[in-house]
Amino acid sequence: MPDKDFQLHDIVQMKKPHPCGENRWKIIRMGADIRIKCTGCDHSIMMPRRRFESKMKKVLERAEPEG
Fold first, then answer.
1. Of the N and C termini of the chain, which has fewer Cβ atoms inside 10 Å?
2. pTM (predicted TM-score)
């Protein structure tokens, strides 16, 4: 599954859309838990990494590499 590699500030698509209708999420924190923010309404949620990996569908946009 090469699509499952993600990094901070990537835009990802989840399997189910957010209730606001948007299905694009930005990764804003990574660790044992991952925090993602809806790009439509700016609501953010935190979930364990394992749950995030099972619910993530694909990476839509890669973050710009710093440097």
1. C
2. 0.85
